[in-house]
Amino acid sequence: MDDALSLTVLGCSGTYPAPGGACSGYLVRAGGTTVAVDLGPGTFANLQAHVDPAALDAVVLTHEHPDHWLDLPVLRNAFRYVLDIRDVPVYGTAATERLATTLIEELDPTLVWHTVGPGEPVEIGGLRFRFGLTDHPVETLAVRAEAGGRTLLYSADTGPAWDPGDLGRDVDVLLCEASLRPEHEDQVQHLSARQAGTLARTVGAGHLVLTHIVPGIDPDTQRAAAESAYGGDVSVATTGAVFTI
Ligand SMILES: [Zn+2]
Ligand SMILES: [Zn+2]
User: Fold this and answer.
1) CA atoms of 9 and 43, how far apart (whole Å)
2) What pLDDT sits at residue 186?
3) Quick one: pLDDT at residue 2?
4) Measured on CA atoms in the order 212, 213, 215, 219, is the torsion positive or negative?
5) Ligand nearest to the CA of 40
6) How remote is the CA of residue 127 from the centroid of ligand 2, in Å?
7) How far is the CA of 157 from the centre of ligand 2 (A)?
8) How many CB atoms lie within 10 A of CB 245?
9) Is cis: bond before 137, omega within 30 of 0?
């Protein structure tokens, strides 16, 4: 289990946290390496239930929208002022770095920022990451994570114009946003569950996990819509769920 690529859901509410929930954040783990991918509001509390913060190898942030990274400043509070954890690599866009620097002022010595973009592979311990631009109003990185011949693809936030290209090859699990009700399809750069299902079918994903469902939208309705477009089994992310990939 420790060697296998796995996905742990720290939060999965879209746009704002549901009561008792948290916004987007996940642990991606393999072979003793643990990386937090997105750190939305509420996720750092949940992270501590799954991993000793000192064992966190890196943070990857998909984009600058607050529901995807606003627990970074409080993680830095904990690491800087209480836990004395230093030199944690953070991978993200230049715009997210600007906002993080505005809020945190001094990233050093706690966080070491690496600006990343499409096509730049990043190796973190036993995990290999690649990134691609999605269809969203700000620079947003889809994340492909591989270890031991298994692959996770995370859509981050995207509209239907996203083409995963070679990030979409041999995807075992597609973690895909499904923010929208069907009647809101194509009105904003997010996906409905039907569109998430279509994307999973297009990339030939082995399994589809829906996430970023906006509070008030029924997860079972989203699952059914995704299943009929995808033709395979669909899970809906819940906080604390662990998927072995
Ligand atoms: Zn979002
Ligand atoms: Zn967004």
Assistant:
1) 9
2) 86
3) 63
4) negative
5) 1
6) 25
7) 5
8) 23
9) no
63 Cα–ligand 2 center, Å: 7
Please state the pTM of the whole predicted model. Answer: 0.97
Residues of the chain with pLDDT under 50: 1
Cα(23) to ligand 2 centroid in Å equals: 11
Token pair listed for 185: 């399809």
Instruction: Yes or no: say if 121 and 130 are a contact pair by the CB < 8 Å rule.
Output: yes
Burial 11-35 (b: 16+ CB within 10 A, else e): bbbbbebbeebbbbbbbbbbeebbb
Expressed in angstroms and rounded, the spacing between residue 135 Cα and the centre of ligand 1 is 12
The DSSP call for residue 226 is: H
Q: The dihedral of CA 236, 240, 244, 245: what is its sign? A: positive
Measured distance CA(128)–CA(148) in Å, rounded: 10
Of all residues in the chain, what percent are helix, strand and coil, respectively (each to 5)? 25, 30, 45
